[in-house]
Amino acid sequence: MNWRALFWRLHRWVGLACAAVFLVVALTGTALLIEPQINLKGAVRLDDPATSLAGVETALGRLAVDYPHHQPGLILPGSTSQRSWQVGLRPASGEGPALSAEFDPGSGRVLRVDKAETSLRDVLLKLHNSLFLGVTGKLVVLAMALGVICLTITGVAMMRRRWKALTSSPLAPPLRARSLHHWTGLVGGLFIVLWASTGFMLLVYKSLPEFGVGSTVKARSAPASEAAPETQAVQPTAPQASLSQMVEAALALHPGGEVQALSRSPHGVMVIVLNRDAAPWRKSTTVAFDAAGAHVPAREPPGFMKVMIAAKALHTGLWERSWLHAVYVLFSLTPIAVVVTGPWLWLRRRRPARNKAERSTRRIPSA
Q1: Which residue of 12, 120, 188, 250 shows the fewest CB atoms closer than 10 Å?
Q2: Does 365 score more than 60 pLDDT?
Q3: Rounded distance, CA 15 to CA 346, Å?
Q4: How many other β-carbons are positioned within 10 Å of the β-carbon of residue 354?
Q5: pTM for this structure?
Q6: Where are the domains of the chain?
């Protein structure tokens, strides 16, 4: 059996089937890597939590008065300058629109309140994860991820003169789609497989309830940054210890850490700390405090939870140092080049065959 011919046929038809979805996912993935740098969103380092977070409780109190039928969720840093943080507000009855409020954590001034999931990042995530098609779209994206892994394996397996293709400049004149396709496929192959496999894992994990799997599995193993709503959807009451003191204590337990998110309830406070220098499965850690401000010892996270934390760290690159994030952005261009040049090569290969068949037909004399 000619394995190379089999790989070639599989590569062409799987690539054609995945091309449109892969292009959308590749473009939105690149945009999601760039968007936090534009809006300066992400975890932040707090040199003085008592000053930086002095107004968080004030802002939550004002929101509780203005929106009494909504309950606060995660509190997320909104900028590296700590001037704009945000908190999600969910309807207590489960009916009605969810809201997202921005506030100044230093003064407690509420800046604006909008409908949730209307930001650029939310739109990109919906398109990236489900193509705006709900469960059907997620299934399509999952199938595409498996197809991309198949394409990378078959493409590298059947390629000849890999070293020459890798060391030759794809932009050297005359510019050829084939050389560009081979070069970007080889250079970005490792990242493409990494993104496809970790993205598949994360999407399956987040979609377990929608796919008919009990939500208890997800609740037990959810990463700290995605705590179950039952632990957050409660109206906050003033704890005996201030929130800033608990944040300061959490950062003291993890020197060099950054505040990734906060969650407050009548039972206490959860501080999610990001450590960029830690191993991928330990980058995000939850530090819990009771209502009196006493530290609650954390249990060792289960293995599945560590895998999910590592998958998210490796998939996004947003939890890494800036230089590695720049590498992610640079290599995110390779899937776009691959998915554009691939169909082009497929069409060029079929056009000569079609023209040859037409010429042969014209040569046959009519009866």
Answers
A1: 120
A2: no
A3: 9
A4: 9
A5: 0.78
A6: 3-39+123-213+332-350, 49-116+233-302
Backbone angles phi, psi at 220, to 5 degrees: -70, -35
| Least confident range of 65-69, 215-219, 223-227, 231-235 | 231-235
Mean pLDDT of the chain: 83
Give the separation between CA 269 and CA 259, rounded to whole angstroms.
Answer: 13
Query: How far, in Å, CA of 367 to CA of 25, rounded?
Result: 53
Take residue 237 and report the two structure tokens written for it. 């009451």
Tokens of 34: 């760039």
Helix (H, G, I), strand (E, B) or coil at 148: helix
Nearest to 275 by CA among 296, 253, 297: 253
User: For residue 217, what are its two tokens?
Assistant: 């599995």
Q: Are 43 and 260 in contact (CB under 8 A)?
A: yes
Q: Tell me the CA distances in angstroms from 173 to 56, 82, 164, 201, 345, one per residue in order.
A: 58, 49, 16, 41, 18
State whether residue 149 is helix, strand or coil. Answer: helix
Predicted confidence (pLDDT) at residue 262 exceeds the cutoff of 90? yes
